[in-house]
Amino acid sequence: MELDFREELITSRNSFKSSSSLKRVLESNGHSTANAIVLHHTPDQTEDIYLVLINGSYIISVELDRYDQSVPPILELIELKEYKHGLSRMNQVRLLVAQDILSGQT
Fold first, then answer.
1. How many domains are there within the chain?
2. Cβ atoms of 59 and 53 closer than 8 Å
3. Is residue 106 over pLDDT 80?
4. Cα–Cα 20 to 30 A to 1, which of 26, 70, 72, 90?
5. Ranges of H-type helices in the chain
6. Using CA atoms, how far apart are residues 27 and 89, in angstroms rounded to an integer?
7. For the whole prediction, is pTM greater than 0.90?
8. In this predicted model, what pLDDT tens digit does every residue of 10-20 receive, in sequence order?
């Protein structure tokens, strides 16, 4: 399980090397993507919802409209302590692997 998460999360981290609407939204709101990983991506009917770990220290929830780029994104900062509260064992492992990757211990 950990190795699967590691592969997926490294791919997620590398995706920030190219331009994307998620990268533009995060950077235009002052969040560096140089050390960021998408923990979860939930495609919904009208928007995409991302949970992005930034610098291993906090989470940004981002909602992007799928069809209308002129709709302003919704961003919410989530403290790690708050995010960890009630987290399933599987998602705890995913978070720990992501933090490990961002700390440079890949």
1. 1
2. yes
3. no
4. 26
5. 2-15, 21-28, 80-84, 89-102
6. 31
7. yes
8. 999 999 999 99
